Amino acid sequence: MPDQLDWVVRGPQVVPDPSLPDRVTIYEVGPRDGLQNEDAVVPTAVKVDLVERLLDAGLPYVEATSLVHPRWVPQLADAEEVLAALVGRIGDRARDLPVLVPNERGLERAYDLGLRHIAVFASATDSFARRNLNRSLDEQYTMFEPVMTRARAAGMRVRAYVSMCFGDPWEGDVPLDQVVAAGKRLMDLGAEQLSLGDTIGVGTPGHVVALLDALNDAGLPDDVLALHAHDTYGQALGNVAAALRHGVTTFDTSAGGLGGCPYAESATGNLATEDLLWMLEGLGITTGVSMPRLVETGTWLEGHLGRPSPSRVLQALRP
After folding, report:
1. Could you tell me if 280 and 54 are in contact, meaning their C-beta atoms sit under 8 angstroms apart?
2. How far apart are CA 144 and CA 151, in angstroms?
3. Range list of H helices, 247-290
4. Under 8 Å CB-to-CB from 303, ≥6 apart: which residues?
5. What's the CA dihedral at 283, 284, 289, 291 to 10 degrees?
6. Residue 313 and residue 273: Cα distance in Å, rounded?
7. What is the pTM of this model?
8. How many Cα atoms occupy the beta-carbon half-sphere of 200 within 13 Å?
9. What residues pair up with 286 in beta bridges, in sequence order?
10. Which three-class secondary structure state does DSSP give residue 300?
11. How far apart are CA 223 and CA 193, in angstroms?
């Protein structure tokens, strides 16, 4: 039997499915969505190292941090320091790293830092909008409109997240047309991509297909959509497979499966980057991401967090 390192390098046996896309983009959210849910504040130097390691692993998008007020997310209070350090380490490339911008004040901070890629975080439900944004479902768009308009005018790329797409812990089932309305409104405001959040991980493959069909019918094609899956009920990879077969080719993941949502206690970890990569490699789908480097990074991160990762692949391949 090969040793662990050989197995990491070799990866799964490849059995391509010609009906699936031949390339997928993995959008890494660990440094932001992963670390914001940690009980302890991770040192700035570790955050900087994490972003650089993930970039070195070949991830094309690494969401570096959030320009939110420190009172709301103290774990990311060092956003400016992280971004300044990254500029010093990797140069102008750091200004293309996506960052979450909650409001106009956050956008001004992004301007000051010379950033070129932002994201906004909306809700498909009124309950979560009030808890996460202190706005009603309709009021959130009033907050996002000037942010997105000004960002696009400045030549920035704008991504929009819409959370609670598959269920809400306070409201229960979320109607498809409610999610479609939220997503369409964000795209109409100027987002170039819409990330569909299964925030509490209750989605199932049939539900994913139904929502994607509804979004397509409303004029939003698969190539502007992304899936942000959580693995609360073990459904994340099944949901990704359903979206992949539908035609979606961008998926949000978090290194080591870290993260959740500080405003929804039932939201457990994101889909682990390693777990998605293993499935995609087995299908012969190109990502440009190095599994050995990803495993090395996940193992390194475990040491800094002082606990094992929930990623099943990382557990299996840990050197």
Report:
1. no
2. 10
3. 273-282
4. none
5. 70
6. 9
7. 0.94
8. 20
9. 23
10. helix
11. 8
* Separation between Cα atoms, residue 85 and residue 190, nearest integer Å: 30
CB within 8 Å of 116: residues ≥ 6 apart: 95, 96, 155, 156, 157
State the sign of the Cα–Cα–Cα–Cα dihedral 229, 233, 237, 238.
Answer: negative
Residue type present at position 108: E
- Both tokens of 261, joined, read 């949502």
- The model's pLDDT over 172-189, given as tens digits with 9 standing for 90+, comes to 999 999 999 999 999 999
Q: What is the DSSP letter of 137?
A: T
Per residue in 89-130, pLDDT tens?
A: 999 999 999 999 999 999 999 999 999 999 999 999 999 999
The Cα 146–Cα 124 span in angstroms is 19
Q: Is 2 exposed, middle or buried (0-12, 13-18, 19+ CB in 10 A)?
A: exposed
Asked if residue 99 lies in contact with residue 68, where contact means CB atoms within 8 angstroms, the answer is no
Give the C-alpha separation, 162 to 179, whole Å: 8
For residues 123 and 145, give the distance between their C-alpha atoms in angstroms, rounded to a whole number: 14
The pair of three-digit structure tokens given for residue 314, joined into one six-digit string: 């990382």
List the catalytic residues. 261
19 burial type by CB count under 10 A (0-12 exposed, 13-18 middle, 19+ buried): exposed
